[in-house]
Design goal:
Pdz3 Domain
Length: about 475
């Protein structure tokens, strides 16, 4: 693909991807800032401005409480300006009030009572914490709603097949092993196995598997793989080599059985029927690098094998248990499941971030706004449910990122409040000012790196 084709492709999809991105981001920003706003009002703080976006105002109004609500030109974030703060980031405060004639005057006692900086430490901390906290609450609400009305999709954490030559075969996994836990963490679905392997990379993990009713310990290192999606975005994962119960195989794709070539699918079908209920290897191609699977298909899971009118429609089911189910939830169990999902996602994000810091995972996997937009556009085309799932994931990530102890972020403010609580006095404003400037430079650098990296990976993959 040349540069002209690339530009044309982006132009054709800009409304889908751009529109989905702006919609998702605007909702999440509103939720985050509303958390700051509502707790500030509950604590008696006057809110000057509530903005979705930055830059020039497109539309706005002022409510009875004196808060100016507005939509701004650049839809890449938002802010809440609290009374008494010198800027939306609360990086400083002033007890002077700007007058309409451009002059300033000292705050009255009544105005000081509604200024953010005059509030007790616990109230200031509550206002700051409310933004990330409500992102988590919103994500749990979305997930719980899906679980109640749609059910939670669950694919059992069992290996319906094993990839030949993979870590799973090397370390002694067998077909139909049921993964109970990894490093002491309970595993409830095959998605949990994938998620644990994504952050494990090539580090050893302790697996507990159930085999024929017996619990067995396996210590295995997944194989580190570099993958690339259709946009060109690259990431690293750990590949164990277990195939989920959802996978089935078309007989026409099977070219070898235990190393013997079968050019006629009918002959391959006859051989498989003879071997049903035993463990053997199949090759999905004739080349040396063709995927080899170790399987043990069960007769009771393939009752109609050989009954199709056309051999191209014949499929072999690999699992010995139901491939997928939708777990029904009531409101209480749905909230519990959603809360656990938020916890697991946060833990995985922490592990991946630490791997980038220590260098075991490349920083080029850090995605920016372009990557988020690409994913949002794909989810929007797949339907409402995938888009809601993405929104929940991004809401958790937004809450997580804002809790990082980086000046300008909510976590940075909370860190200052922590030291204030210990010392009994605020950190000097000069020190805070230097910290906020350093934090600003750091965040701008990270954002520039992430977005330039997105552009580079897209262009390099398409040209």
């Amino acid at each position: 693909m040349n540069i002209t084709d690339l530009i044309q492709m982006l132009g054709q999809n800009i409304w889908i991807y751009g529109g989905a991105f702006v919609l998702v981001l605007s909702i999440l920003v509103f939720v985050h800032e509303w958390g700051h706003y509502i707790v500030a009002r509950m604590c008696g703080v006057r809110v000057e401005t509530f903005s979705i976006g930055f830059g020039k105002e497109i539309w706005g109004f002022t409510d009875k409480g004196g808060t100016h609500w507005k939509l701004s030109m650049i839809p890449l974030g938002g802010y809440v300006q609290l009374f008494g703060d010198t800027d939306p980031a609360s990086s400083g405060h002033s007890d002077n009030v700007e007058c309409d004639d451009g002059k300033s005057r000292e705050m009255t006692e009544a105005e000081k009572k509604v200024a953010f900086f005059t509030k007790p430490l616990w109230q200031r901390a509550a206002v700051v914490l409310a933004g990330p906290a409500i992102n988590y609450i919103f994500a749990i609400f979305l997930l719980a709603g899906l679980y109640v009305f749609h059910g939670k999709p669950v694919s059992p954490p069992a290996g319906a097949a094993i990839i030949g030559g993979s870590s799973a075969e090397k370390y002694g996994f067998q077909v139909h092993d049921y993964v109970v836990s990894i490093d002491g963490k309970a595993i409830n679905s095959f998605g949990d196995v994938r998620r644990e392997m994504m952050v494990a990379l090539d580090e050893e993990r302790h697996f507990v598997v159930k085999r024929d009713g017996e619990l067995i310990d396996i210590y295995a290192k997944p194989e580190r793989k570099n993958i690339e999606d259709r946009f060109g975005f690259k990431s690293s994962i750990g590949l164990l080599g277990l195939i989920s119960a959802e996978q089935g195989i078309l007989i026409s794709e099977i070219k070898k059985i235990d190393g013997i070539e079968y050019s006629d699918p009918l002959l391959a079908l006859a051989e498989i029927k003879n071997r049903i209920g035993t463990t053997f290897k199949i090759s999905l191609g004739l080349s040396d690098d063709a995927r080899v699977l170790i399987i043990n298909p069960m007769a009771d899971k393939n009752p109609e094998l050989g009954s199709a009118d056309n051999i191209s429609e014949e499929a072999l089911y690999l699992a010995n248990i139901p491939a997928k189910s939708y777990a029904a939830h009531n409101a209480i169990t749905a909230v519990q499941a959603a809360t656990n999902e938020a916890y697991v996602m946060t833990r995985s994000s922490l592990e991946a971030l630490w791997q980038m810091i220590v260098g075991t995972r490349s920083a080029t996997e850090l995605g920016g706004l372009i990557r988020i937009g690409a994913i949002a556009g794909d989810m929007a085309q797949q339907g409402v449910v995938p888009l809601i799932l993405l929104m929940a994931l991004l809401s958790i990530n937004l809450g997580f990122i804002n809790l990082l102890p980086i000046p300008l972020l909510d976590g940075g403010h909370l860190l200052f409040y922590f030291f204030e609580a210990i010392l009994g006095r605020p950190i000097p404003e000069v020190a805070q000012d230097y910290a906020f400037k350093a934090g600003f430079i750091f965040l701008i650098g990270i954002m520039a790196f992430a977005n330039l990296n997105d552009i580079y990976q897209i262009v390099s993959a398409k040209l």
